Amino acid sequence: MEVNGGTLTAQSISENATAKVLKSDDGASIAYQAIPGRSPCILFIGGYNSSMAGEKASFLARYAADRGQAFVRFDPFGHGASEGRFEDGTIGRWLADTLRVIDKVVQGPLILVGSSMGGWLMTLAALTRPERVSALVGIASAPDFTEDLMRPSLTGEDRVILRRDGVLRRPSAYGGDFIIAQQLLDEGREHLVLRRGLPIEVPVRLLHGQADPDVPPERSLRLAEAIEGSDVRVTLIKDGDHRLSRPQDLALLANTLDELIKNI
């Protein structure tokens, strides 16, 4: 696998490593980190308001470095080290960032690993760049969450605030504010994937905690049903939470990737 625009050494990949940047069409800097290695490249796509310094992204960087596997992680617009206001982001904008990383940073086949919102983005990316994708791994995948999870959770008062301000802020269980923007809800309708069959034929592995308080396991089951390919497996972790970042969860992720890489 070739990494364009420079690389970081395996030893330097960490939460404190200096990120490279890509420029989006409007000039915003999109931060990424990459290590070269064997094909296929593992591309990690993070969750809503997460960053590439998170536990799963950092674990995957170590996993790839230990095995000599190519790896890329990035922060989409408004996330982590990338430029932009988070509340100005949309599914389409974050998909465009994902595709730019696919097109500009790496060459060759990819295994897309998507966490939460990243599971939606990896699905959209696989539909848009089918020739590049060799396998998908979803972690607490949240396809269509703007329409099916966010919108139904709004109270009458929430809707008034959104109409007035365009943005709603709630306390987050993970620290800081949980932000919902009206344009995110509206634009998200253009990218829904669970209302149709999905012509994805590559191996798909979906991991989901049954104790997930944020994204019901039903999301992964519905995604599996929508995918038209036959090599689709859903693994439910009975006591698993949304993050799936415990040692046993990360070990399951590593085993899942080992199996896919071996058979690609």
Estimated helix fraction: 25-40%
CATH class: Alpha Beta
Q: Quote the average pLDDT.
A: 93
Question: What kind of sheet is the major sheet?
Answer: 8 strands, mixed
Rg, nearest Å: 17 Å
- Unreliable stretches (pLDDT < 50, length at least 5) are 1-17
Number of domains: 1
> What is the topology, as strand order, of the major beta sheet?
2-3-5-4-7-8-11-12
How is the CATH topology named?
Answer: Rossmann fold
Order of helices and strands: EEEEHEHEEHEHHEEHEHEH
Can you put this structure into words, describing what you see?
This protein is α/β, with parallel strands linked by helices. The protein has one domain (2-144, 193-263): 3-Layer(aba) Sandwich (Rossmann fold). It is 34% helix and 24% strand. The protein has 8 helices and 12 strands. The protein has helices at 55-67, 91-104, 117-128, 145-153, 156-165, 182-188, 218-226, 247-263; strands spanning 2-3, 20-23, 29-35, 38-45, 69-74, 106-107, 110-115, 133-139, 167-171, 177-181, 204-209, 232-237. An 8-stranded mixed β-sheet has the order 2-3-5-4-7-8-11-12, sandwiched between helices. Helix 2 crosses helix 3 (117-128). The longest helix has 17 residues, at 247-263. The chain starts with a strand and ends with a helix. The model is unreliable at 1-17 (pLDDT under 50). This is Palmitoyl-protein thioesterase ABHD10, mitochondrial.
